[in-house]
Amino acid sequence: xxxxxxxxxxxxxxxxxxxxxxxxxxxxxxxxxxxxxxxxxxxxxxxxxxxxxxxxxxxxxxxxxxxxxxxxxxxxxxxxxxxxxxxxxxxxxxxxxxxxxxxxxxxxxxxxxxxxxxxxxxxxxxxxxxxxxxxxxxxxxxxxxxxxxxxxxxxxxxxxxxxxxxxxxxxxxxxxxxxxxxxxxxxxxxxxxxxxxxxxxxxxxxxxxxxxxxxxxxxxxxxxxxxxxxxxxxxxxxxxxxxxxxxxxxxxxxxxxxxxxx
Length: 262
Known about the structure:
262 residues, alpha/beta, nine-stranded mixed beta sheet, globular
């Protein structure tokens, strides 16, 4: 049976930032953290990778690196995305952990001086953790993209670009093809200058690459086709590959999926 190989695990939906582009800004969910008992019930061995992030800042979870090490001991690849603001506080734990891959989500340079400083420190000390800068393309952040990619290049960090998911907030404007094309060209040009890789948004397919490869699990252990569908109220009763496959078969007809910009 076709089933996703990556588990996107939301260890918490709590966050120390309030980014207006994030779905947390319109979420009505209670804030919570996955318990260690709950985590140990997850069949991690059924996946090739566990990505420890969702609609919150994973570094806020006190047991984050304990969970990462447990997954690693089972032979599962581990990754996470962080806003980087708590990097200094958890640097030692991070460097000693079995984490395979980390991405720093940054879409603006405003107020990010300390984050950049700590990322530089991490890069100097890091020995083996794959490192990326993850940038959300917005209609107005082309100049930020330039500066962020240049920062990544100066520090030898590869870059991942992705489109904005805007359907949760009427104040957010959809990206034009021109916005995406300009940002990708600028990033690739700078990346070429510094010799770093720049990964641009993949061509849209239905079923999409995310749902084909991933399944999302909230801190409350409810599963969903993806993080966006989760916040919009679509859940599975359990971590069900059968239900996931049924969703994929009908994905072309799903109203959210048809309008999704990813």
